[in-house]
């Protein structure tokens, strides 16, 4: 059966697949933004996932068969990382991963690069709004970025009318 037609399995990740998670980020990001400077080696990225993200975030992966094809790292009202391999984008995998984070947090902030129009459109489709745009002076790549924010809307209690007073 074709992987693109199979529903991915969402799994909590441990230390073992951190190299695969770091590689997904590397491949997906540089596929979209080829001109970004490569500021870290693959080994440094793997260590970042193991030593920083794993102890401080919930990390979920989307697996198709035995292959990890998407990953999200989140916690404390932030999404730190959300990437899907290019060949698997557009199949709802990113939406599934983002939905897991939205189930656990009432509000979320995240950064993405201004030039990453695909990511920007994705987040906007999922209810995120741009709050701040920067010139990139504070990120390692020195690439202009944008801060997005999402907040869960309060649920209405059936039968109650809004008060106008």
From TrEMBL:
<dbReference type="InterPro" id="IPR000182">
    <property type="entry name" value="GNAT_dom"/>
</dbReference>
<protein>
    <submittedName>
        <fullName>GNAT family N-acetyltransferase</fullName>
    </submittedName>
</protein>
<dbReference type="Pfam" id="PF00583">
    <property type="entry name" value="Acetyltransf_1"/>
</dbReference>
<keyword id="KW-0012">Acyltransferase</keyword>
<feature type="domain" description="N-acetyltransferase">
    <location>
        <begin position="8"/>
        <end position="154"/>
    </location>
</feature>
<dbReference type="InterPro" id="IPR016181">
    <property type="entry name" value="Acyl_CoA_acyltransferase"/>
</dbReference>
<keyword id="KW-0808">Transferase</keyword>
<dbReference type="InterPro" id="IPR050680">
    <property type="entry name" value="YpeA/RimI_acetyltransf"/>
</dbReference>
């Amino acid at each position: 059966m074709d992987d693109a037609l199979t529903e991915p399995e969402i799994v909590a990740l441990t230390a073992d697949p951190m190299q695969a998670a770091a590689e997904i980020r590397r491949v997906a990001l540089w596929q979209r933004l080829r001109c970004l400077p490569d500021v870290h080696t693959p080994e440094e990225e793997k260590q970042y996932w193991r030593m920083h993200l794993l102890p401080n975030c919930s990390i979920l992966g989307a697996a198709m068969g035995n292959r990890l094809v998407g990953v999200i790292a989140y916690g404390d009202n932030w999404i730190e990382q959300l990437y899907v391999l290019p060949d698997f984008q557009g199949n709802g995998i990113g939406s599934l991963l983002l939905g897991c984070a939205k189930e656990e947090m009432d509000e979320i902030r995240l950064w993405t690069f201004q030039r990453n129009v695909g990511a920007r459109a994705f987040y906007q489709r999922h209810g995120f709004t741009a709050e701040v745009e920067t010139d990139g002076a504070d990120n390692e790549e020195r690439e202009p970025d944008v801060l997005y924010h999402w907040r869960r809307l309060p649920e209405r209690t059936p039968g109650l009318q809004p008060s106008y007073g």
